[in-house]
Design goal:
Largest sheet: 5 strands, antiparallel
Strand content: 15-25%
Distance between the termini: 63 Å
Radius of gyration: 25 Å
Order of helices and strands: HEEHHEEEHEE
Number of domains: 1
Helix content: 40-55%
Shape: elongated
Mean pLDDT: 90
Number of strands: 7
Low-confidence stretches: none
């Protein structure tokens, strides 16, 4: 009878320690995922703001890299090539500030056959050294958001793809 009581007491304390350990583990995991979720929500929110800004005309409407307050590269869903060229010429850090984002970004255009060239060999605008195919391997982002917006690029329907990552 005594051996059974000792065994039950050991089982009770073992289960208690196991339950407390599991509770602490899951509590810390839930808190960690809440902060990750908030971070990801911020990333999604900013990516929408960046794509909305680029879909606008910009401010002032005939902006230059020196007087721009808000970068916009379209006129009625058509890419304005001169504004796109000015956006391309901007310093990356300055453009991040004007797009009001703290995250890295890369913008390019996709047609039915894949990425479209903006000019010459240039595919997109954003962080130097990044292109549409090497973001994951070059940057190894913790979180990455892709936003697609439909536009007219050089008289053809295309997708403007905006990547934001951290």
């Amino acid at each position: 009878m005594r051996r059974g009581q000792v065994w039950m007491l050991d089982l009770f304390f073992g289960l208690l320690v196991f339950t407390v350990t599991l509770t602490i583990f899951f509590k810390s995991e839930i808190n960690l995922s809440d902060s990750d979720e908030k971070f990801f929500d911020d990333l999604v929110f900013e990516s929408k703001l960046v794509s909305d800004s680029l879909m606008g005309k910009g401010y002032p409407s005939s902006w230059t890299p020196y007087n721009v307050s808000e970068i916009g590269i379209t006129d009625d869903y058509r890419i304005n090539l001169s504004k796109l060229d000015r956006f391309q010429q901007m310093n990356y850090t300055t453009s991040k500030t004007r797009l009001r984002t703290k995250f890295n970004y890369y913008v390019f255009f996709e047609g039915t056959g894949g990425p479209l060239r903006i000019s010459g060999s240039r595919e997109g605008v954003g962080k130097p050294g990044v292109n549409s195919t090497n973001i994951l391997s070059r940057e190894n982002p913790h979180s990455l958001v892709r936003i697609n917006r439909f536009v007219i690029f050089k008289s053809q329907p295309a997708r403007m793809v905006v990547y934001l990552w951290a």
